[in-house]
Design goal:
The chain is mainly alpha-helical and about 160 residues long. The protein is about 40% helix and about 10% strand. Strands 1-3-2 form a three-stranded antiparallel β-sheet.
C-alpha cells in the first residue's frame, strides 16, 4: 500500500524553488559550466526575442549564475554541448537530448504540409548559407522584414 504524503504550501514552495535552481546563490556553480548545468537540469530554456530588460534566456541565466556572460550560450552551441530547437517554443536543450527531437522532425518531414514558394525560397537560402558558413544560430540572421512588426504575434505568426 502506498502511504499518503501531505506537504504544506511552504514545503511545496521550497521544493519548487530548489528544483528551479533559485534556492541559493550559484546553485549550479559559476562560469560557462554552470550555464550548461542549468540547461541540463531544467531540460529546456526558452529562447525569446521579446524583452524589456534582457532576453528571457539570458534572464534565466542571470538569475542563477552570478558571473553569467551572454556569449556563453553561443559558445556552448559552438562546442556542441547544447542546441537550439523549436517545438511549441524555441529553446536551448542539452545535446544528449537531441535524439528525442528526431521523431518530431521525422513527423514534420512525413506529415507536414507542403511549403509555399516563399517558404521554399527561405529554406533554400538558409540551407545555402549554412552550407557556406557552417552551423548558425537564429541570431546570425538579419531581420529583413519589409513591414515592421505590429506586435508579438503579427496575425498568428510569432515574430
Amino acid at each position: 500500500m502506498i502511504e499518503k504524503v501531505i506537504l504544506t504550501k511552504a514545503q511545496v514552495r521550497k521544493i519548487i524553488v530548489y528544483a528551479a535552481g533559485l534556492a541559493q546563490k550559484a546553485q549550479f556553480g559559476l562560469g560557462i559550466d554552470a550555464v550548461y548545468r542549468v540547461i541540463d537540469h531544467l531540460g529546456f530554456v526558452q529562447l525569446d526575442t521579446n524583452f524589456v530588460v534582457e532576453r528571457a534566456h539570458h534572464q534565466v541565466m542571470f538569475a542563477r549564475i552570478p558571473d553569467y556572460e551572454t556569449q556563453w550560450l553561443s559558445e556552448l552551441v559552438e562546442e556542441g554541448l547544447i542546441f537550439e530547437y523549436f517545438t511549441s517554443d524555441a529553446g536551448y536543450l542539452p545535446m544528449h537530448d537531441f535524439r528525442y527531437t528526431l521523431p518530431v522532425k521525422e513527423s514534420f518531414a512525413n506529415n507536414g504540409k507542403p511549403l509555399s514558394p516563399a517558404e521554399s525560397r527561405l529554406k533554400s537560402g538558409v540551407l545555402d548559407r549554412v552550407e557556406r558558413e557552417g552551423p548558425l544560430t537564429v541570431g546570425d540572421f538579419d531581420d529583413d522584414r519589409v513591414e515592421a512588426s505590429t506586435g508579438w504575434w503579427d496575425g498568428g505568426r510569432l515574430r
